[in-house]
Design goal:
homodimer; 11% strand; 4-stranded parallel β-sheet; alpha/beta
Chain lengths: 196, 196
């Protein structure tokens, strides 16, 4: 017996990832209880984002311009390959990386019927030639699919003579050996380095 | 180095209750990745809800009409008093209640500087006279503030000769005694009933 307008708003919030009915209801009520200006600002931001945001012609990341800010201003000879746009945001936080990115929009995943042609690998190959890339850093997640995708791309790039590296896997900084899982520990041991 | 339009959308999602940066980002990306029609439907629903939804003149609940559907169609002689609109939704699920509601929009809470005048008690008194209410069911939450508010209103209504009841407190149906807290158990014991 809920009013249809409220129900419609709740349904829209439910369409967001991981949002159930109760959470959607809470969001909807917060809009209704909030002031009018906030609601119209919110609605405008949704429309504007969808209208203005497209994909960068170079790296494939989200952008409101033909070529994103990062690709416009950074050294394009070093390319860091990631799975998703949010990985770019994570890596940008370290602030010391001055290269560019390449967003695959997924990883190779036979279980989910995703092959090499379903992610942006071809675009990467084109870039490597066009921009005369020196190094490709594989920064896909350190899980089965991320590793497999990194391996696949590394093999593909070998004939092109470009240097391919993989981000290091090991114990997190500040963490405790006691709580690390055995796979991480094994990897950390295997990838041990000389101390100078 | 994130595009401003995306950042703006993330900030808007962050204004929702309990949403942090990562969640807001996830929501924003789901909008950007989704199709255009969904985004405009979403934006429209937010605007429409804020524009059309007001308060029911009788019970105070959210509605898109001057008087809400429940108050329009139900027996107004029984009034169930609740703290918030979402409590109405919870109670409506039982489907057997044929009375109306009264939404207080809060409870008396000295710690949060909320006195009896800050919630919709006056409106309840007016209704009781106008609609010749027979019974007022206090359905505020069974916590300190909900109980205090129920007591306060019950005292206030006593001189008016209206029957005031409180929803039963006890062990949840289908739950296990072992896991019930001691306050609930004490209440369940205290409120024991004859078995016929």
């Amino acid at each position: 017996m809920q009013e249809d307008v409220i129900e419609k708003l709740i349904e829209n919030f439910r369409s967001l990832p991981g949002v159930g009915y109760k959470t959607a209801q809470r969001y909807a009520f917060s809009i209704i209880e909030g002031d009018k200006e906030r609601a119209s600002r919110f609605a405008e931001a949704i429309k504007e984002a969808k209208e203005k945001i497209g994909f960068c012609q170079v790296c494939g990341n989200f952008t409101d311009q033909p070529i994103c800010k990062i690709c416009q201003t950074r050294d394009r000879k070093t390319v860091c390959v990631v799975k998703e746009p949010k990985d770019v945001i994570a890596l940008e936080k370290i602030k010391t990386y001055n290269g560019v990115y390449h967003v695959l929009f997924g990883t190779i995943s036979p279980l989910n019927h995703k092959g090499p042609d379903d992610i942006h690998i071809k675009e990467l190959l084109t870039r490597i030639e066009n921009d005369k890339v020196n190094e490709v850093i594989m920064a896909t997640n350190p899980d089965v699919e991320g590793d497999a995708t990194a391996m696949y791309i590394a093999k593909l790039l070998k004939p092109l003579g470009v240097k391919v590296t993989r981000i290091a896997q090991g114990i997190s900084i500040g963490s405790d050996l006691e709580y690390a899982d055995e796979y991480t520990l094994a990897k950390a041991l295997e990838s041990r380095r000389d101390m100078d």
